[in-house]
Amino acid sequence: MGGTLSDADSPEGRLAQTIQALYLHRARTLTDPATAEAFDIALEAALLIVDGAQARGGLRQEDHEMLRRMLETARQVPGII
C-alpha cells in the first residue's frame, strides 16, 4: 500500500486491503482510475441513501453520523492502496 495512510495495520489500512481484495477477486483493482471512480460513485449513492434514511426518521442522528464517517473513510480506499 502506498497511499495517504502509512500504517497497513490501521483500521483504514485493513479496510483498504479488504476492499481491494474484493475487487481483485473479480479481476479488478481500485488502482485503475475508472474502477476507483465507479467505486466513489457507488459510495456517493450510499451516502445519499443514508441521508435519506435519516431525513425520513429511519436513523438516529448518532447512527447517521457514524455511517457517514464510515462511508467517507471507505471513499479514501483508492488513495490508500
In short:
The chain is built from four helices and no strands.
Poorly predicted spans: 1-5
Output the structural class.
Answer: mainly alpha
Separate helix tally: 4
Assembly category: single chain
Task: Provide mean pLDDT, rounded.
Answer: 91
Radius of gyration: 14 Å
What is the number of E strands? 0
Let me know the largest β-sheet: none
What distance lies between the first and last C-alpha atoms, to the nearest angstrom?
Answer: 4 Å
Helices, strands, pairings?
Blueprint: H1 11-25, H2 33-55, H3 61-75, H4 77-80
Helix pairs in contact: 2-3
What would your notes on this structure say?
With 81 residues, the chain is mostly helical. It contains four helices and no strands. Helix content is 70%, strand content 0%. The longest helix is centred in the middle third of the chain and has 23 residues, at 33-55.
Descriptors:
81 residues; 70% helix; mainly alpha; single chain
